[in-house]
Design a protein that fits this description.
5 helices, 5-stranded antiparallel beta sheet, 4-stranded antiparallel beta sheet, Jelly Rolls, globular
């Protein structure tokens, strides 16, 4: 797990560098926006067929419904995801609605997250995604979420686009500790 974490920390940093290069960022911009591997995290997700809560304990809970993990964006900079061959991940397309993210052996799914959307002043959008319930077999996935330093000020980069900033500056730690309803309204 440590080896995987280190490798994905490095890969996420290189991914951020590629995004900033694509935006023709000035020298030094990547260093200030690389993320903080000590504030980032990795998860081991196991999504089961059917509801994993025992029958006797389901009475007080909402039904599983038509999604196993509801639509959301990730809060940090970028998410790298390794998934098994089961499928179930969907991404929201502005043109085509929900589309399946088909698993490919050896592939890594890359999702830009909320802070990258702010840094790029909406030029790049955070990936809205969800996971459908498993019908025939369990699903395993390993996401690595690269976050900025907890005390980092997140704000649109001056050199990106000609539009006025769409977001006010905020401190990442305050953003992730805000109630979900505040985060959903934007910064």
């Amino acid at each position: 797990m440590s080896t995987h974490y280190d490798a994905f920390s490095d890969l996420a940093t290189r991914t951020i560098d590629l995004v900033l290069t694509a935006l023709a960022s000035p020298a030094g911009a990547a260093e200030a926006r690389r993320g903080d591997r000590t504030r980032s995290h990795m998860r081991l997700n196991h999504r089961t067929v059917g509801d994993p809560v025992p029958d006797g304990e389901q009475g007080s809970l909402n039904e599983l419904g038509d999604v196993a993990l509801g639509e959301h964006t990730d809060s940090g900079l970028v998410t790298l995801l390794v998934q098994d061959a089961t499928g179930g991940l969907q991404a929201l397309s502005g043109d085509d609605g929900w589309i399946d993210v088909e698993p490919r052996r050896g592939a890594i799914v890359v999702d830009l997250a909320d802070c990258m959307q702010v840094l790029t002043n909406d030029r790049y959008r955070a990936a809205t995604h969800r996971v459908l319930p498993m019908g025939e077999s369990d699903r395993m996935s390993i996401p690595y979420l690269l976050n900025p330093p907890i005390d980092a000020t997140i704000e649109p980069m001056e050199h990106v686009g000609t539009n006025a900033p769409a977001y006010r500056p905020f401190v990442f730690g305050e953003f992730i500790n805000a109630p979900p309803s505040v985060r959903a309204r934007g910064s």
